[in-house]
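Lab notebook, page 48
Experiment: co-folding of the full assembly
Goal: obtain a model of how the components sit together before planning crosslinking
Operator: M.T.
Materials (sequences as entered):
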Amino acid sequence: MRPRKLLRIARWEATKGVGGLDRGAVAVAVAATAFVLAVSVAVAGGGVALEDGIYRVGVSEDSRLHDPIAADSSFAVVEPDPTAIESGTLPADSQYDLYIEERGDETTLYLAAEGGAPTDKSRAVVATLRESVDRYNDRRMYEEDNETAAFPVTVTIRYVERGFDAGGDGGGGGDSGSGDGFGGTGTGGTDGGSTGGGSVGDSGETTDDDSIGAPSLGAFDLFGTTESTGSPSDISPPFPFQSLVLAFLFVLPLNFVIQAYGSSMLSERLNRRGELLLVAPVSPAEIVFGKTLPYLAAALAITAAVVAGLWALGGEAGPLSVLAVLPLALLFLATTFLGSMFARSFKELTFVTVTASTVLTSYAFVPAIFTQTSPVALVSPLTVAVRDLTGAGVTAGEFVFATGPVTLVAGVCFLLGLGVYREEDLFTQRPVHLKALDALAGRIRRPRSLLLVVALLVPFVFVAELLAVALLFALPVAVSVPLVFATIAVIEELAKGLPIYAGYVHGRYDRSMAVAVVVGAAAGVGFFLAEKVSLAVQLVGLPGLEVADAAFQTGLGTRDPAIIALLAVAPLALHVVTSTLSALGASRDRTGFAVGLVGAIAVHLVYNLAVVSRLV
Amino acid sequence: MSRTTIARRELGSLSREKTIVLAILIQLIIAGFSSFLVVGLTSLYDPGGGGEEIQVAVTGEAADELIAAGNEVEGLNPVEYRDRSNARDGFDRGDAAAIAVAEHRDGRIDVSVEAPQSSLQKTLVVVRLRAALEQLERSERRDRAAHLDFDPIPLPPSVDASPYFGFTYTILVPLLVFLPVFISGAVVVDSVTEEVERGTLELLRVTPASLVEIVEGKAGVMAVLAPLQLLLWVVLLGFNGIAISNVVALVVLTMAVAVVAVVFAAGLAVTIPVRQRAQLTYSFGALAAFAAATALPEHPGTTVALLAIDSPTLTTYAHVAGYVAVAAVAAVALRFGLDRIDAERLG
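Observation: model returned without errors.
Model output:
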């Protein structure tokens, strides 16, 4: 690959249509600006309140519950009509979900009922009402003169590690300081305004107090690491879905980038447009990477901007976060590239890219939920970003573990796509799955090429298995381990069987028994060799996680050399046997392949359940 | 006549490429994903949710009050320890999930809590402790009622309610309504720009079909597909025991919004017949419109939620009528616009 040629193509791609500002570019810019403006206005206005008025409550104005209900926007106050109550119950088809009747000191709640039992909705209304009354009481307390009586309990919460004392006595001094002046967190001021009356002066005074207030990051305490002090209702439990916010910030922009990228790659295939570049003295790799470079640069620039924004908000983000998102960006681009090589039309491309980005987003996001709790989190590169943002940092090994498989998969996707970046494939239309077989077959010449092709697919297998582990590890072991076994049998047999089938479909092999056995053995050995690289998992990533042990079967947990040795060799026999089964089936026809594959999966599953669970 | 031919051809290509299957699959993943999220989220937050009891080490001179309050919280088991270092030992051994030291100070009860930094239970521990502390606060307030101007309102009884109820109607259902609408528009952009970019529009125009008929046929079929997918979701949700009310109004609303979306998409596709540009403009524009809709008295998402949960008001129906009117105007405008476009310039 010659950098100069590559850069020239990158420049063409980046400046395409920039010359005279065409209508399309202007429209994109206008729409993007409108999007940013509309979102920031909506966010500044408090976001979208989707739950406005979903619960209808009949309550009269002189009821004590009226004020808390009116203050909560999810309730719609409906004028009470006593005739709605029929023989002591509120029918479900009335205009209320909850009817509040007050007679003297007694308050009666009528829940809308159907067939004698309160409806789901009316029960949800009461549960919501309970929370709103609690919040309302707290707000009213801010207006009280006697702060000690209004807030009789103060809480300081600290997060500590088990096993060593985090200087509890030193913290004690801080505690005594927090005892006085509490109650002026500034909330008092806003509530004074909303309820009016003589309380405004009071709340003004309390804010002047030597108040503790919320910790500086307040609403942005994404990571639950700060110490906080306040009344019990001020405690905000640590937000376990911090990675959701990050996934949105980092992954959402990637979706726009790949949309533009996919269009550009697919349009090369329309009306043989790409032919001009193909006949030029440049290699397909130079064309593909040249055209990819501007989009990768755009993705990185956006990520850097997001990281800088987070840094400005008080995160400890640095270059490490950008580095962690880089493999994700690569993977998004790689799958889009492969999709645009396979797709027959723009419509198909839209669906292929949306599917890919949904799956990839789950891969990035789900494991990262467990950042602070389980090593399984390191499956996702986002975890590295989360750790970097919290200042926790990662070791080099962990970084490689988190980003390695993703980068490898991206590389393999590009490689497979490059295999079909040639005239005979680029400008023909075939269903996606046949194109995928073409891409595999493009690398198969003789039986032993299967060694390489199957080995190439191992990163895919690895990523798919990691995703399965990440999704299933939270379940009880009795459920998760068999499920993981089954998933793995399917994934691994597919990875070995598909290249074999592709070879037969493309007539690379004789349909004889002897050849089938050779082919099967080659696939089995290739898979075995590549899989042993995954031993690194146990060394770096997931020690002591039972599900991971089930998935990667190293036997290291047993610490018995004989078992470790047996577990190192036995899979070779297994992989050879099962892939020969698939090969024998594939040497007949499609149905034969399906039967062979199912047989292989069954054998694999039985092996896993019998041998491994007995030994480990 | 040629409109239906175009529409049938469009449907044919969608089913041949199996894209419609993929589309439903995507929605299934997204719906499953967001439900997974919320179930996880609420089970972490819901004080009564998890089965196992959480043991908390309580110590200090006000320990009795805190223990009394903690006993009223489901799933929390406060245990008294002699002193702070004892409690710390219990915490380090893993007997206690957290430490709470309660002291009387300046006429208040001052509780200092130490929760585990790295534990899956962290959130659950804090949520349940908070419930206990709020209980303590309420009972202390009752004791000091004489010093308060405002007598706190007694809480309504706690009932057994699904914590996912609100989420289902305010997030999931609007998502399932607007996602097909968004995808419909995107497909129209793809379909029209592709005919232009491949040069097949010219071939189509040799047939008796006019440009108006071609574009309307393509857009029309996608506008109809969106409410059909909604109906599918209504049936599926029904199997899961989630009843959707006002289905007719919801279908009308979806149809109207889908018409607006496909008209916008078709308009873009003929104005900017380059897929990359048109598609980006469409996505940004659609998302911008969705965000800008917060300026309406009732956000479209809220309208969907109110209809589905059976709490519609007159305003809700007025909004539905408004969308229908906008859709009608948009459809007419598209036809006028297409008539004025020089089709030669496109192909």
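Interpretation: The CA atoms of residues 516 and 584 of chain A lie 5 Å apart.
Next step: discuss with group before ordering constructs.
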